[in-house]
Amino acid sequence: MLDWTDRYYRYFARTLSQHAWLYTEMVNTGAIIHGDKMRHLRFDDIENPLALQLGGSEPADLARCARIAEDWGYDEVNLNVGCPSERVQSGSFGACLMAEPTLVSDGVKAMRDAVRNIDVTVKHRIGIDQVEEYSYVRDFVGQVAEAGCQTFIVHARNAILKGLSPKENREVPPLKYDFVYQLKHDFPHLEIIINGGITSHEAGLAHLQHVDGVMIGREAYHNPFSLAQVDELYYGAAPSAITRDQAMLAMRPFIEAELKAGTPLRFITRHVLGLYQGVYGARNWRRMLSDAKLLKNADWRLIEQAMREVAPREPQPAEAIAHAATAPLAE
């Protein structure tokens, strides 16, 4: 989710779900150790629970970054062993590391030794290139689990390291959910979370009959209002009464503070374009909030104008609007 799950999207997502576990973009260890930590690690407290997703392969660097993540207040550090892009491979991390389970195990152990109170998890594929045997991912998980990893997030596709783009790697290799189910059967003591091609809560709940958790990526981005059901369906919370309008109004203090700090409005609005998906007028909403001319030097008033373009309007009692704009978003 590079360039997608930045702090602006995560803040927006948290207005819709209080309990969903959020993940950062993948950040490589070198950027954290040698780069601008504020740029790569900054987040708002409202985003918790939040995991820092790391890309890297050198155990000492992974350990150092895991310690930094804990010091910064992250709830989890996740090692990405699933990204298939050639740019990531050139740095010797991502999906190519599935061919080196010993190195992954060394990295996991180093990270676990470096932190005190947060979890270390691994996100990976079921195989790489033309490896089709279930035993490949079984042995990978078994070896990494011996290093102390208890949670595996499994994208139920192979990663094709040469010849397919990252987008094609999300679509071309066939989904093999049964491989992920089998992992849970073979390692009942581990937490197994399924990922890949899940586009509805109905599908997510069906997967929970076989595994411990569900990760939804692009569907949650393109149709963010689906997050409003997460707390009820997956965490047993009371049904959410939030509307799309209220979610946007809840963002107003954050947006205005960011604008005052010099953040261009387009950095935020690009993440909310799918909010009114399925509502008449959604095209106007997307058009206005992605128009470079309108966004230049724009402020909150552009969002208010775009909201008026969406019809039919959701009923918004005045007191409800005031509450949505001022209420705290987390306890």
Automatic annotation (TrEMBL):
Residues the UniProt record annotates as site (Interacts with tRNA): 80, 167, 170, 283, 286
* Domain of life, per lineage: Bacteria
Q: Which NCBIfam families match?
A: PRK11815.1 (NF008774), yjbN (TIGR00742)
| SUPFAM superfamilies in the cross-refs | FMN-linked oxidoreductases
Record domain DUS-like FMN-binding: where: 1-306
Entry EC no(s): 1.3.1.91
The entry's protein name is tRNA-dihydrouridine(20/20a) synthase
Which molecular-function annotation in GO is an example for this chain? tRNA-dihydrouridine20a synthase activity
| Reaction equation(s) it catalyzes | 5,6-dihydrouridine(20a) in tRNA + NAD(+) = uridine(20a) in tRNA + NADH + H(+); 5,6-dihydrouridine(20a) in tRNA + NADP(+) = uridine(20a) in tRNA + NADPH + H(+); 5,6-dihydrouridine(20) in tRNA + NAD(+) = uridine(20) in tRNA + NADH + H(+); 5,6-dihydrouridine(20) in tRNA + NADP(+) = uridine(20) in tRNA + NADPH + H(+)
Cofactor needs? FMN
Q: Which residues form the active site?
A: 83 (proton donor)
Known function: Catalyzes the synthesis of 5,6-dihydrouridine (D), a modified base found in the D-loop of most tRNAs, via the reduction of the C5-C6 double bond in target uridines. Specifically modifies U20 and U20a in tRNAs.
Similarity field: Belongs to the Dus family. DusA subfamily.
Q: What class of enzyme is it?
A: oxidoreductase
What keyword terms does UniProt attach to this protein?
Flavoprotein, FMN, NADP, Nucleotide-binding, Oxidoreductase, RNA-binding, tRNA processing, tRNA-binding
Database matches in Pfam families: Dus
Q: Where does FMN bind?
A: 53, 123, 155, 195-197, 217-218
Lineage, please?
A: Bacteria, Pseudomonadati, Pseudomonadota, Betaproteobacteria, Neisseriales
